[in-house]
Amino acid sequence: MKNILIQFDTDPLPSTFDRVVAVDAGADEVFAYGGVTPENVTSLVHGAIFTRGPDELKHTAIFVGGSDVASGEAVLEKVTKTFFGPMRVSVMMDSNGSNTTAAAAVQAAARHMSLKGVTALVLGGTGPVGHRAAQILAMKGAHVRIGSRSVDRAAETCDAIRTVVEEAIVEPVGSTGEALASAITEVELLIAAGASGVQFLSESQWQGLWGLKVAIDLNAVPPVGLEGIGVTDKAKEIGGITCYGAIGVGGTKMKVHKAAIKGLFESNHLVLDTAAIAEIASEIG
Questions:
Q1: d(CA 158, CA 169)
Q2: CATH: 3.30.420.10, 3.40.50.720, 3.40.50.10280, 3.10.300.10. Which one for 4-93?
Q3: Residue 55's pLDDT is what?
């Protein structure tokens, strides 16, 4: 029986990237739908769960994607609420690559340091990738500072993380001026996950941080978020600091993405969200 992945994309045109990765990960067929919303997804889910017997439903799975993470999360919630009893299929949400990229970034750091008790700063921490990187770090016991130009937005992100990670130690901080200068004090792990074209720190600023062990910049579009880190840098030592650029993390991101897709066809009850995808990244190492 063929493994069919049904791609629900919240954008008008479904992502070719996600479709190619799905095929490379072992999906025999990919049915891609664009413009998917919580209001129109129910009949599509019914089509997925009513066409095969319960013992065959592991051969059908759903992938939720698109550029807007909040929209993807809303579709994921509606999809899972549509399931009932044994009539369900495994589903993965990775809108804008947020979960797989964040999981890969945290796993890159974990290769070089124990994350429990580490003081980490995530710049661009209210964005889709930064939010999830901060959440995964909190899950692993790090003390996480979430940086944003708006401290109020950072505080909202902290509250959102506490709702899913009860023991989270998270703190909102500013990412500009004197607030940023204070936020980078005694940081051991630094992750820049800002929007394209946003540079948070000059080379001298982050290289001069006492105690900094790992720096990761997830922006592949110049100027990068942390000046001096190349997009292809992978575990490169710069001034005694282990550094990763966006493409340096990208290899792990692709492994995580493909492993997650492959895992969807092992049973019909998986929900691969941020926490589950982080666990897959940990297993890959």
A1: 9
A2: 3.40.50.10280
A3: 95
Per DSSP, 224 falls in state P
Tell me how far apart the terminal alpha carbons of the chain are, to the nearest angstrom: 32
Which value, in Å, is the radius of gyration of the alpha carbons in the chain? 19
Give the start-end residues of each E strand in the chain.
4-9, 29-33, 60-65, 90-93, 119-123, 143-148, 169-174, 189-192, 214-217, 234-238, 241-244, 271-272
| CATH, range 100-249 | 3.40.50.720
Phi-psi region of 97 (alpha: psi -120 to 50; beta: other; left: phi over 0): left
Are 181 and 204 contacting, i.e. CB atoms less than 8 angstroms apart? no
Round to whole Å and give the CA distance between 105 and 102. 5
- Residue ranges of the chain that CATH labels 3.40.50.10280: 4-93
Mean pLDDT by 10 residues, the chain (285 residues): 98 97 97 98 98 96 95 97 97 96 98 98 96 97 97 96 96 93 95 91 92 95 92 96 97 97 97 97 93
For residues 160 and 65, give the distance between their C-alpha atoms in angstroms, rounded to a whole number. Answer: 21
What is the reported pLDDT for 174?
Answer: 94
CA distance 64 to 274: 13
Amino acid at 215: A
The owner of tokens 């340096």 is 248
Three-state SS annotation for 149-178 = CCHHHHHHHHHHHHHHCCCCEEEEEECCHH
Neighbours of 37 (CB within 10 A): 12
Angle, to 10 degrees, between the axis of helix 246-264 and the axis of helix 98-110?
Answer: 120
